[in-house]
Design goal:
- By secondary structure, the chain is an alpha/beta fold.
- 43% of the residues lie in helices and 15% in strands.
- The strands form 3 sheets. Strands 4-3-1-6-7-8 form a 6-stranded mixed sheet. It has a two-stranded antiparallel ribbon with strand order 2-5.
- Helix 3 packs parallel to helix 8 and helix 10 crosses helix 12.
- It is globular, with a radius of gyration of 19 Å.
Amino acid sequence: MKQLSVVVTCTERKIAAVSPELQVRALPPGTVDHRVGMWHERLGLGTSAVPLMNLYQGEHWVQTRLLLETARAAGFSPRLWVASAGLGLQPASASFPAYAATFSPRHHDTVAPTGVDRRLWWKALGRRMGTPRLADLGGRRSVLLVLSEGYANVLEGEVRELAGTGDEVVLVGGAGDVEGIHRIRADGSLRSALGGTMTGLNARMASAWLSRCADGRLISPTTKGVWTRWVNRVRIEERHNRVPMTDAQVKSYIGKAVLDHPGSSRTRLHRMLRDSGKACEQKRFAQLFAEMMGEQ
């Protein structure tokens, strides 16, 4: 069977409560390296470690499990890796205690407020944890990346490094096209065919791609053709008689959304609100978003 490395992002929802010392908000101020060092020490002192495969919850993780089943049915031997702001790049078989860390800049448990520092955190954490880089997952294996916009921005350098290895790589979601990688953009117009919410869309799209893989390869002209014809046939631009919202309701939505979808841009959160059947003009949403973030 063809070896396949599958990389997905972690989820905020865990099966157990997070102890105060394993919440990034509890770290004292300092340089990125100092904070990473303290965080690494606290992880080592944590108790009740659980394999990552069993630690996470929510629709994204349910779809991740199904993604592995689809990969096996398509003739691949998948190995799952988790990209985590708190743990680095880890195999899903590794065990850790519940923790709270995110790349979302306005979250209470954000590892850093700026994109530069978030990338520095990722590199420093990888050195401390001794984790591999994305390029290390290639070689004899094809690589399937299922990344949110926020994580793709932080891991941009490693994604480009992976693209340079010449391995078969498919990126589902992400933040932009990368030369040498076949990217499948997140497409809300496929939800009518795939079901579920925006939270699990990338994983559902990855499964849909794998189920159409031909010739024992992750990427082939046949698969690309079958995918394109299927997308053109089932795509439905969602139109709603959207329900108006008050300013208070929009702010309430924003407060919950930034916690449920760490790392997501304002534009994506606005799109998700509209996809849910609610109405809020873009300029008004941007203003309320800025006000809401200033209150936190």
